[in-house]
Amino acid sequence: MPKIVDYEARRREIAAKAVSIFVHDGFHEANLSKIAGLCGFGRTTIYKYFKDKDEIFLFALEEIFEKMESETRAVVDDGSLGAAQKLSGILEVLVRAAVNDKERALLVIDLCLDREPEGLESRTLERAMALTSAFERVIESGIASGELKSVKPGPMAFALFSLVEAYILQNSLFGGLACDEALEAARALLEGLKTNPTKA
Question: Is residue 80 part of a domain?
Answer without folding.
Answer: yes
